[in-house]
Amino acid sequence: MKKAGILCLCLLFFLSAASVAGAASATIGVLPIVDALPFYVAQQQGSFRALRLPVKLVTFRSAMERDAAFQTGKIDAYLGDLISAALLRSRGFPAKVVSVVLGRTPREGLFAILTPPASSIRTLKGLKGRQVAISSNTIIEYVLDGLLKANGMSEADIKKQEIKSIPIRFQMLMSGKIDAAVLPDPLASLARFKGAHWIVDDGQTNLSQTVLVWNGAFIRRHLPFMKAFYRAYDRAVTLINRDHERVRPLLVKKCRLPRPIARTFEFSDFPPASPPSREVLERVLTWMKTKHLLKHPVKMNDLLFNPGLFDSPGPSKGK
Asked: pTM of this prediction?
């Protein structure tokens, strides 16, 4: 009788888990960047499947396409940054920042200022009065402003040049048509590999974070699914951190790691899921207010989702 009872309990647990997993499915929008690696690993290695989680990944060519899909309800979550999330929230969309993907520590997900291969400029102060190519009102401009401030300079010391497309910005940098550019890794590392000069990055000042943003209505309806999702996510992170070389082919194929640096690019460990720090978010919101980017005021508690979904303790201290 005792064995029969245990078997019944196990069966009930299995059916309960299956019903939780079957109660929801999630469509997540990603860009083909290094930051998306844990989602592809979870998909390929079966972390989602093991927990019976129907998770669909949709790759977008640009952040604009991704944000449009989120606003129209075509995706339930997206890989982005705090600035994009705050912009959506200020426009009335129920964006909730739930977890940090990269940026909990300074060396995760670097952005860098570089000068062309033929340039004689080797320091940030050497860029005084020069044009620096960015995409305005984005994480790119936020990083530039932060790097200037951290190095005793101000926005007035340089001239901002609008080049929204990252590939075009990269090409113009390499051809010497611009004085300098802000680029994210791995394109920044590719530029250095091809001879560009690495001036400064945010590895010390801890400015940029990549986050997973969810539709608030989805979270409220599917909390059990969310908890199971993050268990699967953390399994994928463990696999990556245990053996970078094992997942490198996936990084090249799905995250479009440039082939010239495919074997040499050193990517950081990914942190287990945890919420962004309130200090980091406060700095971002303050910057956005000074730029008059928020259509309506955004309160920190409206943008952040209350933690409790994660197995890993505590909020991130980082970026």
From this structure: 0.87
